[in-house]
Every structure is written in structure tokens, then in C-alpha cells.
Amino acid sequence: MIRRYSFGTPLPTDAVVCALPAEKGDVPYFTTLRENERVSFTLSLSPEDILFGLGESVRGVNKRGFRFRSWNSDIPSHTENTESLYASHNFLVFFGPSRLFGIYLDDPGAVIWDLGYTRSDTAVITSENGNFDFYLIEEDSLSGLVRTFRGLTGQSYLPPRWAFGYIQSRWGYASEDEIRTVAEEHRSRHIPLDAVCMDIDYMVGFKNFTWKPEAFPDLKRFSTELKQDHLRLVPIIDAGIPAEEGFAQYEEGKAEGVFCKKEDGSEFVASVWPGWCVFPDFLQEKARTWFGDQYRPLLEAGIEGFWNDMNEPALFFTEEGVSEAFARAESLRGSHVDYESMWQLKGSFNGIGNNMNDYRRFFHRIGDASVRHDKVHNLYGAHMTRASADAFRRYDPDRRFLLFSRSSFIGAHRNGGVWQGDNFSWWSHLKMALQMLPGLNMCGFLYSGCDLGGFGSNVTEDLLTRFLQLGVFTPLMRNHSALHTREQEIYRFSTWEMMRDTVTVRYALLPFLYSEFMKAALTDGMYFRPLAFDYPEDTRAVRVEDQLMLGEGCMIAPVLEQNAVGRYVYLPEDMLMIRFRSASDYDLVPLDKGDHRIDLKLNEFPLFVKKNHLVALCAGGESSETLDDRALTVIGRIDRETVYDYYRDDGFSPRPDLQQHLFRISIKPETVCTSTAGVAISKLLI
Amino acid sequence: MIRRYSFGTPLPTDAVVCALPAEKGDVPYFTTLRENERVSFTLSLSPEDILFGLGESVRGVNKRGFRFRSWNSDIPSHTENTESLYASHNFLVFFGPSRLFGIYLDDPGAVIWDLGYTRSDTAVITSENGNFDFYLIEEDSLSGLVRTFRGLTGQSYLPPRWAFGYIQSRWGYASEDEIRTVAEEHRSRHIPLDAVCMDIDYMVGFKNFTWKPEAFPDLKRFSTELKQDHLRLVPIIDAGIPAEEGFAQYEEGKAEGVFCKKEDGSEFVASVWPGWCVFPDFLQEKARTWFGDQYRPLLEAGIEGFWNDMNEPALFFTEEGVSEAFARAESLRGSHVDYESMWQLKGSFNGIGNNMNDYRRFFHRIGDASVRHDKVHNLYGAHMTRASADAFRRYDPDRRFLLFSRSSFIGAHRNGGVWQGDNFSWWSHLKMALQMLPGLNMCGFLYSGCDLGGFGSNVTEDLLTRFLQLGVFTPLMRNHSALHTREQEIYRFSTWEMMRDTVTVRYALLPFLYSEFMKAALTDGMYFRPLAFDYPEDTRAVRVEDQLMLGEGCMIAPVLEQNAVGRYVYLPEDMLMIRFRSASDYDLVPLDKGDHRIDLKLNEFPLFVKKNHLVALCAGGESSETLDDRALTVIGRIDRETVYDYYRDDGFSPRPDLQQHLFRISIKPETVCTSTAGVAISKLLI
Fold first, then answer.
1. Domain A512-685 classification at class level
2. Is the pTM for the entire model greater than 0.80?
């Protein structure tokens, strides 16, 4: 059941797809307080209460004990006390012995979530602007509650099947030749690969929708050449458009009036990668259509996937901001510079990026109104994604495109996936990547993953290996790294064969993981879940922070610690452990409910399967297109006939019918062709 | 066995206390490479090799898989990829199935430790300057090896017994009244307390050895008043001396020629807290004596403990550095500022602190030579500590003083303790604090601890509680926080009673922990050890990263994760768990060798005791001086008569004789007065 409560004058956000009448009276459970524009909701927490949700955010699966701020931020060097990441996902579930409900604040501005931070026994949620819809969702179970919420917000984005392949990316690839080398190094070493990302260096002066003619003399020919090798290109698109006189896009967009304006009606200009840029007003349909149309040359060149970046929007600085910084610095010059003024000096220039003053300098048109950006800041990236997805649907309505974005808001989950933003080559960010996944899934962002290996700083062989072992299971499996960091392609490392073997597991599992993903997406379910969703009565399971349920019957528990050759795992019920080393080399170990210490050498990682559930492996391969997904090895720890409804489709049709694509696999306990008692393996051709 | 190999022209560092003849030929095990000034040592690592040591440094107990740089740095916002912290402790042990040896690089300049970072199977250790002694230490056991190393470097500092009490600190306490309030809030709520730190605000304009006359009108009277309440004051002393004409210390030190000079012979001046400062050349005995004498007014006011800070030395900036930064900024003004120049702009002022150019601007006198600071950078803090400790010995040779420093080098462990530097209110820093302790102990820094609750950023109730639960066992148990962060004294929180109960456990254990500490210090042993030291043959134990051996027979395993109400613990042998809630409320749970999942609510924390070892608790109290340490409850899981040699002394005499102060406690299995089978409790009066 969903109830909507309306506060102030909510602006359209495109987050929900159902219009509900507003309830009268106060929101139940909470004490509501209005102070000037701010509206806050206070609730007492019992020691047993657990909070799930908030999508892309730091800290644990249980969000309790921290203060988050919904404010889309370009903040690569985030640590555990970073309040805002690249996205704002205002859905939170309160789960305890005597309570189960979810809340969604459909608020495009800043929202503060003090979840047992100031006082461990109190949650206070505050809308800074006070114009929003508050949805209260109640169901009998966590899964049911999330499904109801997802019904409210619409079906998750469906990527094409090739988007489940391994993707290699690096900030710095600048030419056909460089990308060709990356492709060849993978193919010659039999490291599976489906796509290569093109970061900003493919463009002419970082200008959107251009590509360097000398480096990519014939992009269509090149993309065709790669496709023949079952590889795809995935270029980046940024939010800003160069404010360069004579640059066609700028002139055209200016003529159409699609860029954000300042209060005086002039265009808002800020520096990002190409230099001075204007910013499409994605909140206007006209601007979205115009922007979407710009993708056409790339689509015509055969591109089938994109990543949208810099769309918080990130702002390096404005002219006003730089002038103010220089003035501040100047005022301190020559004086006896003390500690305070040193901090001011440093701060003067440090603060010029993504500055709140700049976010107050420009406006959006919403209907007839002009709305200052900071009031709707968190919508920007989501509406850029919307512009892109709409364009792809217009250009080729019969094909799914790959699209993932850095910034997002609930609603964008219908149009694209997300990566988890710019992370670091840190073990703590590996753990954070895992812990962020269930929240993202709750909010509908099923197609997601982190920059494997870490974007910033230098990765080590062991860390990249453990990142890849998590990545085997994340729908988006992309190795990505930043300019000036250690080169991070698998083949750069002395232990590349171990890493290749890890990726082969992804390809053996790819049809199965795709099946699990599609079934979750088409039923408003979750691909990754906290254990609490399956075992709400198990007081141990509900607090597990480093294991996730995957699909219908699986659980993952990767190694997240440097130098570890094993880990503890809690099994809420009897399971089968598949300890993978490669697609063809794995152990099958039945383990009973309870705590286990599992040996996991650097090249080993486990997948757990509930009793009387099945996993299907194919023989693997080097690209998603060349996999034979009909020859399956079906594995289960079963004591009765067990079925698995295996989803298969063509991998690209946009509106698949679930029932039509399900193929029922059934095996019986007597199908035992292994020495491990109770484990059935069946070889099937379907 | 120790062998010394000499490279270049080593400078005196005061690190070792034994003169060994230099070996001829190459260092065994390593491949030595000389490149210009640099000397590097390369060694292959097997997958099983584990590396212990490096004292104050980030990452795990096992230092493998990262690159460290010995370079004392003022770096509060450190993360897992921070190469340098506040101290340089160049002692590392290689421990594997087929190797056991330690190396110590007595090198006062930068040393790079690539420990399986560039290649996971290779360690490369590089001295940047090439003037150092390389000690190779070999013994049959880890403990023996460390003891031999500690024999080379001399006996650890002995703090007074009151330094094992709980210490409250905060950057911001600025007056008698404020400190009195802190004291009263603790006393009135029966939160035990032994000392209050005075951070920089007690001084007049942050000038060393001064105090604000209006805020502390009679420091001696105030310190006497507090001592009557069994409380002591612990003021901070910084490294820099204000370069202020007419300021007595400056004039005097200038006349004596004790400050560091630039190449042209003029004094080196940089800004730190008081503004422009000069820096005593602590490498000269004359300067140390002069600086040490400055403590006299504070000693005469009854002060018995100090913390030395800012002694990397931290430099906010120099006039030259600021000019260069302004010039860089100016050169970018007006130009079309792009991304690169924005980074340069930010960097120009960001880089002005602790700048390498500044460290090259000044010199030390060593004998007749003038040595540029960067060649001996890592000695500075250690020699400040030496100056202080020598002064205390001169002033009152019959008393131990409390002294702990931010920056250090091996050798300083004979003169003082260390705190682990400026950390954050992060769960990851709680874990890092634990993991740093065994390395510090290996290097002789037994008196150590972190800023409990975290120095920077805002603590939460649960995080402070878990920090305190670690702090119960660290010799230095100090709650410290920074200006502008959440107030962090226990009494500020709604859950203060839970925190108070935690501190009561410290006081119940204080005589026992003091006994364990003194026995370790007086025998060149370790108070905290990796489990590998006790169970080198146990392949599980050697890799445990979140438990530590404590003293002769104990092990700690604190909860390090937010929202956790339990944790896994590995017991390498049968043990007794004491699950503490307060000094008088605890469970006794015998647990057998193996893996265990332990329930530990927020107010609970365990101490494990090996079978046939004993722990002694006193009744506790509110200060170390008012504890009755003769009435003991002795607890053990024993199956034979078991003895504990209990160390007791007056708590302040400087050269205690170990044997003279040992009191043998003996209990027998039949002394069972508990319902828990196999656990003996004996009430003793000694």
C-alpha cells in the first residue's frame, strides 16, 4: 500500500509513474516539523531497527549511524564520511521487530538523512526546500515493499545482452590504434571482452558528439571492424556544450533556446573539459529532444552504447567564481599570513569547483516558471539520461542500447543504468562497491557496477583480482582507470592469467546471470538483495554486511581484504558452494546452515546456491555473442526434483515478454554425476 | 644474530645503542642495486611470505601489497593509500615457510618500501640518499628476532603509572574553568579520569612554554588543585619558536645559535601556529639542552606530562613558498583558465604546507658538517623527544614523566611514547589503529594509542564506544578531538553511561595491564603482538588481521564495524573469553580452539585469556591513584596450578628492577567459585 503526502509545491521530477491522490493529515509514525522552508520528519529507533536503501551512498548495507545528504556531487576522493555521492536516491526502508515501512521523498533538492547520527536512537529526515511528495509504502515483506515501490516508479532499464560482457575502459584511450591494441591484447591472450569504452580523449577538444578525425578517420568502419570481432565501442558523452561561436551545436542550441540561463536571461557559462560551456536545460522536453538528436552521427557510425558523465552537473568553475577566488587570494597577499588565512587561501581556489554559489547562478524552465538550479539540482543527470534514452528509442525503436550514467535520480532507472562513480583503487572501495549494490537495486538501478580495479590511484595485482571477482557478478562489469594512474588492463600484470581465468567465469555464467537479471527487471524484483530480504526472521542474516543475495537462489561473498586467503561466511540455510578458479575449474562443496570459514586463495571466489535451487553454466567463451548458451551444465544441491525457469531472448528486443522467453529446466536428485554427495550435475542442451 | 652493512656515509641517528663492526660484502638474500645516490634491495616473495613491522603506517598487520615511504608527514586526512604518516620506523620482518629475518635501515632520509606493490612477488626497498646502516637480524623465532632488534636499539620508555589512566583531550580547552568543568563532569558522573590534555589554546599566542595569564592565573595552584583530585594536566609543546623580536626564548636561542639556518647562515623561518617561527636544531646537543631547559617553568608549576607536536616538522608555509604560490596563481589569471590550469591554481596554494622545497631550504649542524634538512628529515621529531626526556631527567631524575610525541624515529622509543597522529572519526581508522599497534611494539613504541573517537570529523555514539573498547587495552588511552568537530567528551552523549562502563573496565584491569606493560618493556618484549608471534606454525593464526595478542597470555578482538553486534574470532588454542560490559559486569565463557562467532552488543567487548594463564582484576576506581590494587579477582581457565608473576612498583621510579617488583600469584583448579566449569576465580589480597 502506498500513501502520498504532499508538502509545499512539488515540482515534476519524472520519478513516479502513477498519480496518487494526496492524503490529508500528518505522515504516520513520524513527527513532522516545519521551520521556514525546511520540513523534517523525526522517528525514534529501537536498537534492533535496521535501515535499508538510499541507493548510491557510502557506508554499509544498513544505513544506520550516519548522516547522508542527497546532493549529486562530483567527488572522486570520497571516504566513509562523505555525505553525498553522484546520485540521490531518496528511498529508505525501516525494518525492525515491530516495524516495516518504506519512505520515498520525491524531492529534487537537498535532503538530509540523519539516521542515528546525532543520536543513535533517532532518525531525522529533512527536506531543505520543503516542496516534495512524501510516499509511505507498507507491505508484509521487504521484497513486497520494494516491489510496490518499484511499481510506483516504473520498470527498470533493460540493457542489451552484450552489456553483460566484460568491458575495458581507461581515461586516455585516444585513437583507433590504441583501442585496437587493447582489443588485440585481450583476444590474443583469450581474455574475454565485449566492449571498449572511449573516454573523453576520442573527442575533438572534448566536444560532445565530435571525434578526432586523425585518430578515428572512419568511425563507422572501425566500429564495424570491431563488431566483426564481437566487440563494441562505448563512447562517453558529457553534459556541457562548448560555448564556442561558430560551433554548430552551440549556435543551434542557442537559437533554439535550450541552454540554462542566468537570472538576467544570458546563458550560464562554466568551465568543464572543453573549456567554457553552456548546459542544456534537460528539464525541458525541447532541450532533451535537441540534445538527444545530437547522438545521431554516433548512432549512424554504429555505436550502440554510451556512458553519460559530468552530469551532476560537475562545474570546474565559472568566471565569477575564479574572479572571487583571485580577489580573496589578493586580499590575503602581503599581510602576515597566519593559519586562518592560509586555510582561506587554500580554500579560495579549492572551492571553485562544484560551488554552491555557481549552482545558484542559473535557472531551468519548468512550464512557465523559472526555477533556480539548486532547487532541482538532483534532477539534472537523470534528465540527461532521459534525453539520451528517448533519442535511442526514436532512432531505433527495435533495439536496446547500453546506457549508464554517473549522476542519477530515481526515475532514471527506467532509462539507463549507473556506474558507482569515480572510486579509488582501495580495498575499502571494493567493500563499499558491494555494500552499495542492494540499495541501488531497491531503487531500480539493477544495471550497475563499480569501476573495477578502482578509477583513481594505483591498483595492485591482488586488488584488481578481488575487484574482478566481485565484477563477475555485477551486471556492469567494467575495468576502468584514470589518466596518470597505473595501467590497469588485465594484460599489464604478471598475474594476468589468474585475472583472465576470473573473467572466464563471468562468461560461463553470463547466460544464467542475464536470465536472473531479466527476470528481476521484468518483475520489479531485485538482482542483488540484502540477506534480510530472504531471511527476515534470522537475526544474524539481517545484519550481514559483506554478503548479498543474487537472483532467485544465489548468494555472493567475495574476499574484500588484502592478503586474505579465506573469509567467514554465514549461511542462513543449507547451500552449495561453487568455489571458482576458472570457467572449467571449480569445487562443489555442500555446506550446512551456519557459520563457515572458507579457504579462498587469491585466484578463488565462491558462489553459494540455496538447496533445491539451480545454477546453469555454459562452456564460456570470449564474447557474449559467441557463447553457446544452449549447452548447459546445471548444478544444484537438491533432494527433490528442482526446476529453474531459464530466461532467454534475442538480447536486444526492447519489450520482451517474460513468459514467452522462459525455458523450464528440471533436474532430479538421481541425475548425480559427481562424487560430491547430494550435488546433482546435469548436462543439458536446450 | 645481527649483522651490520654500511652504505655511503651514514650520519648519526641515535637509533641504535650498540656499535657493531660493519660486515664486508653484499647483504645476504637481497640483490643490491646502486643508481646514483639511491641504493635498492630486491627480494623475491613467495605467496606464503608475510611481512611484519614498519611501525606507524597504514594498511594491515601484514604490510605486504603496498608501497610505503618513510617520510615523516603531517597528514591528518590519511587513507589506505597514504604512503607516509607522522613517523618513520624502518624495521621490517620477513616471515615465511622458508625464511625468517628482519632488516633495519638506520637511514634518516626517505626510504621507499615496495612490498609486493609493483609486482606481487617482489619486494624492493630503496634508500633515496644512500647513506645508512643496514642491519640484518636473524633468530629462530619472531619474538626472539624482535627481542634481538630491541637489544640493538635499547629499552623502551617507561611512563608513570598514572599515564595508564583515561585521558581527556580536545583542541580548544582554553582556560582553567573549561578544564575544571571537564574534570567535574567526569567526577560527578563517576567516569574515571586521570588527566586532561591542554592543546595549543592554553598558550599565549600559541607560544611554547607560555600560558595565558588570564585563563591560567596560577598554573601551579591549579595543577595542585587537580592533583588533590588525582588529576594531572598534560600540556602540548610544539617544535617551532616564535621569531619575535623581544620574545625572550627567541632572543636567547638566537644568541646561543641553536636554530636551524638557511644556506646563507640566516635563520630559517616558517609559519606554524604562532605565526613566523624558527626551529631548534634538535640534532645538536646544545640545542636540545637549551630547548629542554625551557620546560622548567611548566615543571615548576607541577606539570608531570607533555605531548610534543608539530615535530615532523610541520610547516604551514614559508615566505618564499607563499610568494611562489602567488606568482603561480598570478601567471594563470586572466588567461582562459582550463582544467590543467585549474589544477595548477589549486595546487599552487594547496602545496604550500610541508613543502619539499621548504625542507630543502634549511640545514642542521652535525659535528662540523652542515647537513641539509631533507637528508635527515625523519630525525627531527625523535630528537625533540630526546631533548624533552633529557630535560626531565635533569630536572627530576627520580621521577618518570609522561611524554608522547607525534613524530618519531626508532631511538625515540627510549625517550617517550607516541600517539598515532591525527586520525579521523572513521571506522576504517579504528581498524587501522588496531593494525598499527603490533608494528609500533616491534619498533619499541610500547606506550602508544590512537586518538580515541577520532581527531577530525564528527564521531557518533557507537563509533566512540567501539573506539573506547579498543582503548581499554592500549597503554595510552586518550579521547581527543579537533576544534570545529562534534564535542567528544563521554558526558556529551546520550549513551554516556555505556561509555563510562567501558572505561571502568580499564580501571579494573589497570594494575594488570600495567604489569603486562612493564614486564614487556623491561624485557625488550612486546605488549601487543601479531598472533604469528605466538602461533608461527598455525597458518590461520599468522594471517589474522583484526585480533592481537596482549601481554603474556591474552588476546583482544574488538568490534570494528558499524552496526555490528558480534564478530568472528579465531582462537589458535583453547581460551577463556571475558565478555565485559563494565568492571563488575562480565561473562566468563570458555571457548575451544577454532573459529567462533561471538555476540557482542554495543556495550560488550571481549578479552581472551589462554588456558592456564591468568588475568587479575581489581575493583576499579575513578583514578589510577585511588585504585586499590591489592584486592584482586584472579580469573583463569586452568587445569593445573597456574602462576602469574604480577608486577607492582611505586609507579614513578625511573629504573625499576624487574625481579624486585614481581609478586607471584598462584591458583589451583579447585579454587573454583563459579558456575562455569573449568574456570577458576580466586579473590586475593596481596
1. mainly beta
2. yes
